[in-house]
């Protein structure tokens, strides 16, 4: 919600939510964005309650390790193994570059991402012939966390066109001191210690880093003190990280992430590379849909319409009736925005025929009819979708058109 340059859209959404009736809204936001959320939403919804989402208690973490395996497979994790894993995950060791343990302390909770990493590693390392995981097959949390860190760093580096070895080394030297303690870094205007802020946010999203607001400044540090030791160990063998080529589908996901982050240039690069790498129909549809979204966000309606038209052709070959309707509606809205009311009417009528229960399409069709001077036809459509709520979009449009009709007849 608070990434990228979409403040106007966010405020429009919050206003719409605040004016809606019988709505209970739950928002999940990081600590560093909490004050921004409260500043905007408290003006609209004064009565808000805050709940802190913490990690899992040791008991809950043990259950999270054992229960899914027991309930969904014919295998089981012994209580001693699960408890040892949780004890390992809640033990923070400050280890210097020589491998000496300088201090050790216990955490009161387990980070869900750490637990997920350990469970994934445990499952992959589980001997196929063994039904029960015992103490002799104990999984080291540091090994699992190193693998999760390596994967996350490699994914971010590839997505931004960076060398993962360089990024890993930079993270280690920047955020872990030679004595193994955590180091902080204050965010710059566009870059932070030579790295784009969008890359820093990507690392935060993957729990490699965390960010806090201190005296008005955004300050980065390692995602958790429990990651200090495995990150330091990973940095010592960063040369073993092998750069990988992204699959076209991975590039589409990376493009969506870039759009969420407000980085249209990076998003477009990923989309074009994905489209050029394969002729797979679903990838082509996804790539050109995202490309159309990028052009639309830039205000280049002509190029957005061209991209959506190409998607429409591909969808027609797939006989995906619902998706065709959605794309026809998108093209119709662009035609309406460009002033081509006649084309918009045809496209929106076709969309409504494929998606007869989608009221938003009928509202857009009514808007197009009203702009073409066909007020009675527009009012007739709106009567079929209006609700009793005063804030209903169809009712608001209906009242506006009625006002225009009355003004012309008087």
Give a written overview of the molecule:
With 410 residues, this protein is mostly helical. The protein folds into three domains: 1-53, no CATH class; 55-243, no CATH class; 248-409, Serine Threonine Protein Phosphatase 5, Tetratricopeptide repeat. It has 18 helices and nine strands. It has helices at residues 7-19, 31-41, 58-72, 79-89, 112-125, 141-160, 164-175, 197-205, 228-236, 248-260, 264-277, 281-298, 301-318, 321-337, 341-354, 359-371, 375-383, 393-409, and strands spanning 76-77, 91-95, 101-106, 132-133, 185-186, 191-192, 195-196, 209-214, 217-222. The strands form four sheets. The protein has a three-stranded antiparallel beta sheet with strand order 5-9-8, covered by helices on one side. It has a two-stranded parallel sheet with strand order 1-4. Strand 8 and strand 9 (217-222) form a beta hairpin. The longest helix has 20 residues, at 141-160. The chain starts with 6 loop residues before the first helix and ends with a helix. The relative contact order is 0.06.
